[in-house]
What does this fold into?
Amino acid sequence: MHEYAGSIHVHSTYSDGSGTVEEIASAAQKACLDFVMITDHETLHGLFEEKDGWYKNTLVLIDTELNREDHHYLAFNLKEEISARGLTPQELIDRVNQLGGIGFIAHPFEKGAAMILNGKNYPWTSWHVRGFNGIEIWNYTSQCRDGAANLFKLYWSAFFKGNANVNRPDPKALKKWDQLLSDSQRVLAIGGTDAHAIKVKRGPFRFVLFPYQFLFNTINTHLLSPLEFTGKKEVDQNIVYSALQAGHFFTANNKVYPPRGFSFTAENQNEQVIQGDSIKNNKNTVLAVKSPTARSLIRIIKDGKVVSESSSNRLCFKVLGKGSFRVEVYYRPHLRRMRPWIYSNPIFVE
Ligand SMILES: [Zn+2]
Ligand SMILES: [Zn+2]
It folds into this structure.
């Protein structure tokens, strides 16, 4: 398996981000990302102007975030623009699917902060919808803003680039994901940076709120594929989109510890699968987790409950029934509190 690390959910000058595609690509190269997925609000102009492709060692993909008011929806692998205006959330999901796109509900429980944009927030409230590929459980920018409850916290977030609210996925989004999985829905989860690199002017002070390169070293997506990048943009973009659609990826906070090498697989005498896949229930089915460090606490979770855990770099678990199993890994530093680190996609035991 090849592992490709990248950042999903990024805004450029094609909408409300401050960086051009070239500047974003350069920041991604410096952060050693294999790919970056730019998702400007309701536009694919960057794609039409052929700004996608290889920039040195980083593959740039141009995608979009639909809707400007509520119900933000990240849509990948579209070749034509969609006007979300007048569409219900379900119609929007269906339209993305009709065009062969891959869709994720963005920052579903965003709260906003009274001191920023007058408390404006963009949550997702229609949960009767079907057909979306997944939800965004971790969003760096949105969760930082949610955590900026007072002036002190706001400036702390801006200057120290973060707050406690972003050190873990949004608990409400995680809970919703577990509910959907318990309901036998095939729902994946992504983590995004929602990078805008907003330029702020306050009197004599000028600074960039969460620069691209900083964010590209935070919440990352690690895709797994049997295929190696070829250097041809269409072929390599398809490798990224196929892995995204299949759920062959995990989300990790790179600031905690390098997550490369994490694996979550299942096997029995007939099949061997990875995260995102389904496997037939069978008395010999075993889940196996491998973490890149022994300073891990590995948890296997089903229906929101921990069914097995291990304080080492490995965990094996014999499955005793159907259900969706996902993995969380916490990093255990010496003498300090454990830190949320890796979130896998589920393996669906059917
Ligand atoms: Zn959004
Ligand atoms: Zn966004």
